[in-house]
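Office hours follow-up: a student asked to see two folded examples consecutively, so here they are.
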Amino acid sequence: MADIAMPLLVYPRQGIGAARLGDSPRAVREAVGTRVESTPAYERFGVRFPARDLFHGGALAVHYDRDERAEWIAATDPLPLRYQGLDLFQAGADTVLAHLARFGPVEEDAEEPGRAFRVPTLGLSLWRQEDPAVLKRALAEAHGEGERRSLRGDLARAAFFQQVAVYADE
């Protein structure tokens, strides 16, 4: 569970809260100043997984590149996370996307349509677990109240983003 009460601020192309892109693990850990759970880089089935640090019970993740510099910083709900006055987890996804579009074009991820979005000018990505359009179609075809109740719950969660990340230039 997150152990932070004050909102973390998003700094485009720089970081989230005190965690900064380009910093070493030591610098990130000192800046964030809370208990950390670290995982070294590893490879499995030919896929490289980067070294990472988790803070605030896993709600803030920092991934490091091969040179041990922060390359991706992500916050997940329930961390209070703000950008230009808007809480990115408490506001609905449509509101968040409209807000961010004021600062640059919003791109939908072709591999995860309806679920993942990027704002390249801000170096920002947003993700939610389900695509609301898919859930609405499933709800229209659902049989039984239990299935409909479950889909309505999924649809309510899909109205919000669950993860926001700042990333280094590719």
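And the second, which I mentioned at the end of office hours:
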Amino acid sequence: MTPRPLNPRKAWIIGYRMSYEDWCQWSPTLPIPEACRPPPTEDVNVKRRNTFYWQYYTEWKNKLTRADQKKLPKVRYERVDDTILSAFIPFRWFEYTSQEDADPNDSDYDASVFQERETDVAQLQNLLKFLEEQGAPVDKYKISFGCMVDIHPRDDWRAH
């Protein structure tokens, strides 16, 4: 019998991460009008400074056509408490039931779920190509494959 998912629903999110430092360097390169650019300032609380980098991304994404917006995965921040570790680019997910889902000693463990697939690589290549065409190329060596536990994609209002 499969245990019920935890409430609130969570999921294993599988995709690629970019370090927060690299995200902060890359997001201001997005082509958005000057009027939409938040002013960089040192006066802002360090814990709130991430909103500027998020705003660069959302302003840029919002200026795209609906068709182009649909090509983009819903990026989210990977956090530990109040510390942002990375920007996470999800490509697939599955229901989270417990941390044992990722335990190789568990009888239900399936290593292939947590491994990089050809479809993941293809989706990443398409995204990198799209970003380059938009004038905001990303160095593929600054992105790494991984997974995280977060709010279920169907329930997450924070992802953009």
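Two things to take away from it. Helices lie at 20-26, 50-63, 66-71, 118-133. The longest strand covers residues 83-95.
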